[in-house]
Structures are given as structure tokens and as C-alpha cells.
Specification:
Elements lengths: L11 H5 L4 H16 L15 H6 L1 H12 L11 E3 L18 H11 L14 H15 L1 H9 L4 E6 L9 H7 L6 H9 L9 H10 L3 E9 L3 H10 L10 E4 L21 H14 L2 E8 L2 H4 L6 E4 L25 E3 L18 H11 L14 H27 L3 E5 L9 H7 L6 H9 L9 H10 L3 E9 L3 H10 L10 E4 L21 H13 L7 E7 L2 H4 L6 E4 L9
Parallel strand pairs: 2-3, 2-5, 3-4, 5-6, 8-9, 8-11, 9-10, 11-12
Antiparallel strand pairs: 1-7
Helix pairs in contact: 2-15, 6-10, 15-18
Bound molecules: magnesium ion (MG).
The site of magnesium ion has 8 residues, from loops.
Length: about 575
């Protein structure tokens, strides 16, 4: 929250229930405090009440003061950049949406790290990822001789075990460009059988150096037996000479000859990744090898022992957790929980792969926060998100009602401005269940025209209370003019009583009558969200726009709030997308 009106002037309502000038004067000053929250003290220059006409005469001056006061707050309107997030999604139980890494910022950070283009194809030559792998593998290569000698002392044959995906073969383009970070086993099998994966950067040279140093090489993957031949062929195709069907372990399918080996025993019928992988390493060691080094991109590749050393490669693009073996504690083989991430993706240049919030962990944290089920449908009754919005709207509503009433009495035509998506209407189910966190404008239009959105929790009561207390409702959304009627229809359908066509602002399409208004001028041909929204708010305050005084501006995006022309900006939480 960048603004808070929590705890301000609980007696304000009482102070306004009288026409006594002294009481009203106090109310006005108190309203000034409320309207300006904590960041805009200059708004106290709002004229003291001296009758409607006097207030009206001073209106221009006070508005100028308020506008001045409201500018300069933009510096506070920035997303958080430090996060604490457990890998398992449990951090989402906190009613603190701003503390959940925004999934769009996570994606752009990942794309910066892999130097991926706009379609999700990684740069194969230069990127922070390639540099980091070069450093990690270069250092490990210098230690191969020592590892070999150490393992040799055991009297067994020194060996190295390597996972496949994102350890020897590089799945980035499949994960991003083809799957949009939503794993699809059918598509994966197409990529596997088509042998479409490049080598993980630097790994062909590293494995060749290990072979040269005398190590036996083994592959160990969660890919299944039906994918074994294609996987070994893909490895050969990209330059590995070490792998063959004898030294490459894939997982049983349970069909035909592909059955659980006798050397693997599991606590339950379905083996965990760690049971499968550690059990296979134990088997390899039983064949006379000492596994000097175990290399993987997932912690579950490395847990469970049966290797002298482990090497974790970075991979923020998915997370495959597994319980460790019963009784085995390996606290160092666990994901990081503290992250620094700028909203624009630029942290991907500097923080390293382990320093990027893993996108699967971010999704599960978001789903915990919204109480979403496995299909991506939010809990509509109870969740940390609903708790947070309940606290926020509960804290704001009394002050907002009082402010609307006082300002109405002052004759300054008070209004509140409200964004649509995730401010008055709730898009979670569309974003997660329908879009899988990949925005799709065609699908969005179907939801908009179908008026399918529920209300944002707590907002109907707040908005209707403001309206009843004398504030005009102004809608201001990035949805376009072709979506205006359906949006107003959707708002009425879910219980908002006060939105009107003249005071509902949607964006022009550039087609037919839907053209850029004369009151909006932009630096480039295509207006930014901030240009469109802040100039529309400015227009609303002019005579032509109704001459309103915008007491509060509600939005779930910082771009809804930047650019001034509202006394108090109020940010609602939304980690599900980022519109800079
Ligand atoms: Mg892997």
C-alpha cells in the first residue's frame, strides 16, 4: 500500500452531523487530513468552510493547491522490490499482495536473464544465463582432477551423474515460446521425440572434459523409457559423445516391459523424484562406481545422497519439488527464499538464476493468496486476498464517506475515480483458469462482452457508500469504447449502483467515432496508460468534464495512479499482471 488512511479521525462523521460553522470548519480541516492521507500535507490549504458560495469562489485556488499537493507523490507509487517467498507457495497465506512477486515482472526478469526475444526464444550466444553457466562449469572443470583422485581413493570407478532437462539439454525455448511457462506433457513429448533441444550452454565441453579426466558418465532423468531412445539421440546430435542407452537411466512407465526396477524401493506406490533418482544413484554405486559429482537443475535431482558432491545449475523457469528420503536432512539443498526484483525485468541482468523468483513458486504463492483451486478458480468467500481487501476497504470507507459528505457540502462536486479490472471487477479466474497467466485479448473480449466478472471483494460496499455520501463515480479503464456498454452492464449486474455512461471513460479504438479526445495530448502517437488516465482525470476536473474534485483514485496498477490529478491515490493489490 502506498497510501493509507487507516486510523484517521474516527470522530469525523460526528463532526459533520451539524450545521454549526465551527463544527463544520473542524470537519473541513479533518477532511483535508483524510483526503491527503499521509503524503499531501499541502492540501490543508483547502479553504475553511464559509458558506457554499465562498467555497465555490475559492474553488479554483483550492484545486490548484490540491493539484500541486497531489503531484510529487508519484515517487511513492512504485512496486516493492524485495520479497520473501518460500518455494512451496506458503508465503501467499499472508494478506499482503504487494509482497507477492508480480508474475509479469518475474517473466520479464527471466527473459532478461536468458536474453529471450519477445516471442520467448533464448539468445544462444550471449546472456546472463550463458555467462553464469560459463562461470559455474569453468570453475567445476578446474576441480575435476581433484574430484577424480578423491573418488579413486574409494577403490571404485569415479563417475559423474547428470540430469537431462536444463542440465545437458536446454528446454528454455519450449518452456517459454512453446508452452508459455505452463507445462504441457503432450507438447513436451513432441519436442522430445523430435530431438529439438539444444545443449545446455557450456555443458558439452564440460562433459567432454570429465570423460577426458577418466570419469564414467551417467544420465539420469525423469523422462520416461518411451523417451529414452530419442533423448540419447538428441544428446548425440548436439555434440555429447558420452551417452548411450546403457548408461542413461529413464523412468518406467508401468506399461509392458517398462516396470519399476527391483533395486528401487519406495515408501508409497508412486515413487517420489528423490526416491527414483537417489535409488538409481545407489544402484550405480552398487555396480562398482563412486559418484564423485551429481549435476542437476532441480534440488530434487540432488537430494537423497549417493554422490560425494553436488552441482546445482540455475533454473528459474520451473520447479519440481520432491520430499527428501525419510530421515534425510539436507538444508543446503534448498531454494533461496529472499529476492530482489525490480518490476521492469532488469534484475535479470545482475541477480543470477537462483536470485530470480522461480515462476512455478510464484504461481503457487499467487494461488495461495487468492485461495485458488488446482484449476485456477479463486475462492470467492475466504482467502488472504479477500482478507486484505476487507481490511483496506474497511479502513477507507468511513473516511471516504465523510470526505464525500463534507466536500459535497462545500459544493466542490466530489468524485472518486475507479479503474475497472481488479479494482471494481475481479479478473482472477480469467487470468489464471482461462488464460494461465498469459494475457489473451480475444479471450478477454469474450469475458468482457459476456459480463463474466464478479465484483472485486469489498469494493461494491465501498463504492456504493461513497456514492450515497455525495461522491460522483467516475470509471476510468484501459478497456476500449467497444467494451464500454458491456463493462457498465457488468458493473450494474454485480451490484454497483452509481456508474453512468457520461462518467465512464473507456479508451478510443481509433476506428469510426472512437477517436482520441481533444483533451488528451501524448508525447508519441501511441499514448501511454499514464498519459491517457492522468489527462482524463484532469479533464474530469475541468468545466467541460463536469468540474469534479477527485478525492480518491482507486487502481490495482501503479500506472492507474501516477500522473496526479487526484488527491489520494489508493492502490489495490494485484500480483497477477503488471501494466507499466
Ligand atoms: Mg532437469
Amino acid at each position: 500500500m502506498c497510501s493509507s488512511v487507516v486510523g484517521l479521525t474516527p470522530n469525523l462523521e460526528a463532526s459533520m452531523n451539524t450545521r454549526s460553522p465551527s463544527r463544520v470548519r473542524r470537519g473541513t480541516l479533518a477532511a483535508g487530513v483524510i483526503l491527503t492521507a499521509v503524503a499531501v500535507p499541502a492540501a490543508l490549504t483547502m479553504p475553511a468552510y464559509a458558506g457554499p458560495q465562498a467555497a465555490h469562489d475559492d474553488h479554483g485556488t483550492s484545486r490548484a493547491a490540491l493539484t500541486r499537493a497531489a503531484s510529487g507523490t508519484d515517487r511513492l507509487l512504485e512496486p516493492r522490490s524485495r520479497f520473501t517467498m518460500a518455494a512451496d507457495g506458503s508465503s501467499g497465506t499472508r494478506p499482503d499482495g504487494a509482497g507477492v512477486p508480480n508474475i509479469d515482472s518475474v517473466k520479464s526478469t527471466i527473459r532478461t536473464y536468458y536474453a529471450a526475444d519477445a516471442t520467448g526464444i533464448a539468445d544462444k550466444t550471449t546472456s546472463p544465463y550463458i555467462s553464469e553457466l560459463g562461470g559455474v562449469l569453468g570453475k567445476q572443470a578446474t576441480q575435476l582432477k581433484g574430484l577424480y583422485n578423491q573418488a579413486k581413493r574409494s577403490g571404485k570407478k569415479p563417475a559423474i551423474v547428470l540430469d537431462a532437462d536444463d542440465t545437458t539439454l536446454w528446454t528454455y525455448d519450449m518452456e517459454d515460446n512453446a508452452m508459455h511457462f505452463n507445462f504441457d506433457p503432450v507438447l513436451q513429448d513432441v519436442w522430445v521425440q523430435g530431438q529439438k533441444f539444444p545443449a545446455t550452454p557450456g555443458m558439452v565441453q564440460f562433459v567432454a572434459a570429465a570423460q577426458k579426466a577418466g570419469f564414467a558418465i551417467f544420465g539420469l532423468t525423469g523422462r520416461n523409457d518411451d523417451q529414452k531412445v530419442a533423448t540419447v539421440a538428441n544428446l548425440g546430435k548436439v555434440g555429447y559423445t558420452a551417452f548411450n542407452t546403457d548408461n542413461f537411466f529413464t523412468k518406467w512407465t508401468g506399461k509392458g516391459d517398462s516396470q519399476q526396477p527391483s533395486y528401487i524401493t519406495c515408501a508409497t506406490a508412486k515413487c517420489t523424484t528423490v526416491e527414483y533418482k537417489a535409488g538409481t544413484r545407489k544402484h550405480i554405486e552398487s555396480l562398482g562406481y563412486d559418484i564423485a559429482l551429481n549435476v542437476g537443475d532441480q534440488w530434487s535431482d540432488l537430494q537423497g545422497g549417493y554422490a560425494d558432491h553436488t552441482l546445482k545449475l540455475p533454473n528459474p523457469t520451473y520447479y519440481l519439488p520432491s520430499p527428501n528420503l525419510a530421515g534425510v536432512e539436507e538444508p543446503k539443498l534448498a531454494p533461496r527464499t529472499r529476492f530482489t526484483m525490480k518490476p521492469d525485468g532488469s534484475s535479470g541482468k545482475t541477480v543470477g538464476g537462483e536470485g530470480i523468483p522461480n515462476i512455478d513458486s510464484v504461481k503457487s504463492t499467487i494461488r495461495t493468496y487468492y485461495g485458488a483451486d488446482a484449476t485456477g478458480i479463486a475462492n470467492k468467500t475466504s482467502s488472504p486476498y479477500i482478507t486484505e481487501l476487507g481490511r483496506l476497504t474497511g479502513a477507507i470507507t468511513p473516511a471516504l464517506r465523510a470526505s464525500c459528505a463534507v466536500a459535497s457540502r462545500l459544493g466542490v462536486k466530489p468524485a472518486i475515480v475507479l479503474d475497472a479490472d481488479d479494482t471494481t471487477l475481479w479478473t482472477y479466474d480469467m487470468e489464471d483458469n482461462a488464460m494461465h497467466f498469459n494475457f489473451d485479448p480475444v479471450l478477454q473480449d469474450a469475458w468482457v462482452q459476456g459480463q463474466k466478472f464478479p465484483a472485486t471483494p469489498g469494493m461494491v460496499a465501498l463504492v456504493n457508500a461513497a456514492q450515497k455520501s455525495g461522491c460522483t463515480l467516475i470509471g476510468l479503464t484501459g478497456r476500449n469504447d467497444d467494451q464500454k456498454a458491456a463493462t457498465i452492464g457488468n458493473l450494474a449486474k454485480v451490484g454497483y449502483t452509481g456508474f453512468t455512461n457520461p462518467n465512464y471513460y473507456t479508451k478510443w479504438t481509433g476506428k469510426g467515432d472512437s477517436q482520441q479526445p481533444s483533451y488528451i495530448t501524448c508525447a508519441a502517437a501511441k499514448c501511454t496508460t499514464i498519459e491517457y488516465k492522468s489527462q482524463t482525470r484532469a479533464h474530469v476536473q475541468t468545466k467541460a468534464g463536469g468540474g469534479y474534485t477527485i478525492l480518491a483514485n482507486f487502481g490495482d496498477q501503479f500506472s492507474d495512479l501516477k500522473g496526479g490529478h487526484a488527491i489520494v491515490p489508493i492502490k489495490l493489490p494485484n500480483p497477477t499482471y503488471y501494466l507499466p
